[in-house]
Amino acid sequence: MDEKFYIVATPIGNLKDITYRAVEVLKSVDFIACEDTRVTKVLAEKYGITAKLIDCHKFNEKEQSEKIINLIENGNKIALVSDAGTPLISDPGSVLLQELYKRGINVTSIPGACAVSTFLSMVPRDTEEYVFIGFIPRTFNLQKEILAKHKNTNCVFYESPNRLIQTLENIKEILGEDTKIAVGRELTKVFEEVKTDTVSQITEYYKSHPLKGEIVAMVFSREAENCRDEDILEKICILKEAGYSPKDAAKIISALYKENKNKVYKLAIKSKE
Q1: What is the helix, strand, coil percentage profile of the chain, to 5?
Q2: pLDDT mean by block of 10 residues, the chain; 273 residues
Q3: What separation in angstroms does the CA of 154 have from each of 13, 126, 129, 176, 182?
Q4: CATH architecture of the domain formed by 5-113
Q5: What distance in Å separates the CA atoms of residue 59 and residue 43, rounded to the nearest whole number?
Q6: Which of the chain's termini has less CB crowding within 10 Å, N or C?
């Protein structure tokens, strides 16, 4: 069966981050099902894409699925895009996809940008293992439950800039102020930023810096963090044996390994006890 439905990844910020194949496919289809037609229209105009746009978001996906399937069965080729990144990665499309498979309609995916992989490629980790939970729950109790469940795995999530500070405060209360975390925002854009530090330090940083754009974050595995602490303690002992004070050892290790200086100093004092 010829492919009649395409899942197409689009840029997460910089419009140049679209593949030749994605543009080619979007130019070849008759309709594009999109999360927000206004957002997709900008991309379509930039690349001369003339397919008709159909809105298909989380509030109307079930109703639109039948319409889209009818269009396909009448010989039309259709693509699905989200506002940014890869559809179905914390974006609408799952309901539609289930219906397509039920009808035996062939589906193919055109790979491209994804905020999760873009973010993780800039975050140094001791293990490749991670869990992606989509948008983190809003309430403290649900956050506590999910963070406890994944405490020994790097936990990646999306968050709104309006809620980030509160979520960081919650993580600090649930897991402790020295919990290691990474936060990325405005990925692929002019003001792209990825910060890796303790949740306490990152919370203070964002309290005094403007928060705009989509947020991707990761709470580091407690298991991996403990292994990292053991490695740091070993290096502290080597430096102390060479005559360095705990303060100087902390400066050296934080500079070489990009670890939080206060955290390293606390470990250096602890090793003295």
Answers
A1: 45, 20, 35
A2: 83 96 97 96 97 94 93 95 94 93 94 96 91 96 94 94 96 92 96 94 92 93 70 82 86 80 78 58
A3: 25, 10, 7, 16, 10
A4: 3-Layer(aba) Sandwich (3.40)
A5: 23
A6: C
Q: What is the CATH number of domain 116-220?
A: 3.30.950.10
- Hey, what are 233's tokens? 């303690």
Give kind and range of the element (H or E) at residue 65.
helix 61-73
Report the side by side order of strands in the sheet with 130-135. Answer: 130-135, 154-159, 215-219, 180-185, 193-198
Secondary structure class of 183 (helix, strand, coil): strand
Contacts of 210 (CB under 8 A, 6+ apart): none
Between CA 28 and CA 183 the distance in angstroms is 38
Enter the tokens of residue 213: 């754009």
Strands 52-55 vs 31-34: parallel, antiparallel or unpaired? parallel
CB 120 within 8 A of CB 218: yes
Looking at residue 253, its pLDDT comes to 82
Phi and psi, residue 130, nearest 5°: -155, 160
The CA distance from 202 to 262, in Å, is 13
| pLDDT attached to residue 1 | 46
CA 119 to the chain's CA centroid = 6
Domain ranges of the chain: 5-113, 116-220, 225-272
